[in-house]
Amino acid sequence: DTTVTTPRDDVFIFYHNNKVSPDEQNSKLQAEITELPIDKNTELLARIIELERLAKENEERFAKEKS
Questions:
Q1: What gap in Å lies between CA 34 and CA 26, rounded to an integer?
Q2: Of 2, 8, 3, 1, whose CA–CA distance to 42 is shortest?
Q3: CA distance 61 to 37
Q4: Inter-residue contact 46 to 38 (CB < 8 Å)
Q5: What's the domain of life for this entry (predicted)?
Q6: What global pTM score does this model have?
Q7: Which of 1, 12, 48, 52 maximizes the CB count within 10 A of its CB?
Q8: What is the spatial distance between Cα 29 and Cα 10, in angstroms, rounded to a whole number?
């Protein structure tokens, strides 16, 4: 299993489980990203992960609306 769990994943799961709206969740995640003293590669990776997650979320939402 090559799944890597980052602190951001834990944060995402926490917000998700506590039914925080996606917009509120995104702003909280964004605030946490800006607080972290991280290098460019880590920041870019975090953004890619976030975009992939949002894309998946949108696909699922679209599939629900379609059915």
A1: 12
A2: 8
A3: 33
A4: yes
A5: Eukaryota
A6: 0.40
A7: 12
A8: 11
